[in-house]
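Subject: Sanity check before I submit

Could someone independently write out the structure tokens for this chain? I want to compare against mine line by line before I put it in a report. The sequence has 66 residues.
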Amino acid sequence: MPLAVIGAIVGEFVGSEKGLGSLILLANGAGKPDLMFGALIAVTLLSAVLYYAIQLLGNRVWWRAF
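---
Independent answer below. Compare away.
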């Protein structure tokens, strides 16, 4: 899940004018490190929450696809 979030952010770097990826690029270009690191922390928290949500969901499912 964290890799999926990172992939979405990289996609926003390239082809978007909205979102966390473009916010990171704009903050970097404008010389606003506080905004850039705030967006990076938001990405980190989003990745962690989604990772643990998928892990919790995987533990609740009765079947395993190994």
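---
OP: Matches mine. For the report I'm noting this point. The radius of gyration is 15 Å.
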